[in-house]
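Supplementary Methods, section 5.1.

A reviewer requested that the exact input to the structure prediction be made available. We therefore reproduce it here, unchanged from the version used in the analyses.
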Amino acid sequence: MRLLLHICCAPCAIGALAPLRAEGHDITGLFYNPNIHPFLEFRKRIKALKVLCESDPLRVIFDESYGLETFVQVIYRPSRPERCAACYDERLRRTALVAREKGLDAFTTTLLVSPHQDHESVRVTGERVAQETGTSFLYRDFRSHHERAHEEARRRSIYLQQYCGCCFSEYERYRDTTRELYRGANPRRGREEGG
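The structure derived from this sequence is encoded token-by-token as follows.
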């Protein structure tokens, strides 16, 4: 089957490519992720995927336009499940339309590699978008490949991101940490002086 694979990041691409290739699919990748912020994080993920493609040749369509405006319009929702569902819809709809435009048989996504994604929401969204666009969605649960993919990315020195990509997921990832907090030159002295 000629398959368009939506790619969220290089490590998840590693996790999806081996099982899809084992099934005999002819794969083209699509990097379309207006959700990834900040801008330098977006560039890091594109670069990581290009590094992966140097050692593991894959045809990839790169949408390198920074999608801040699109993302803000799409995810303006009050709750996490609604925001994530809207984000899934945006990325999978674009993937389905590109698959149809290129005459490919179906589409799928590397979002199905991560245990941190809402798989049921991704599956339901993919199936709905496929029906609405006249395409086919290939659902596979790639979560069992997640750890191996991350180990492989580390082995190849490919960038491993620390959060899903959006500003909300970055906040959720780091809000309970002390990372990057300023503690002052002498924290004890500040307390003694009432600071």
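The mean pLDDT is 90. These observations are discussed further in the main text.
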